[in-house]
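Async update (no meeting this week)

Hi team, since we skipped the sync, here's where things stand on the single-chain job. The sequence we agreed to prioritize is pasted below, unchanged from the tracker. I ran it this morning and attached the output directly underneath so nobody has to dig for it. Comments welcome in thread, and please keep replies under the output.
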Amino acid sequence: MANKIKIKRDFQNLRIYINGILHLEIRMNNHDGVQSWYEGSKKKMYFIEFYRKEGGPILMGYDEFEIWETILKLIDENI
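Output:
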């Protein structure tokens, strides 16, 4: 995998970085849940959706399984 993915977590925020660039920031006091899934048969798209107490959900989509899988594992370790 060519992408370097990291998650940083502090009391207020969870930040996802891809190749050193901020990809997403979630305010943890507004976090209500997360789910993931994929769609398609030959050409799959992989999704991660964060639910928030206020505001609409945040949906992230990827066309690479490895990015999706790595982000999900890091989220699991840091939430």
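Quick observations from my side:
The chain has a mean pLDDT of 94.
The beta strands are 5-9, 13-18, 21-27, 31-39, 45-52, 58-62.
Reply here if anything looks off.
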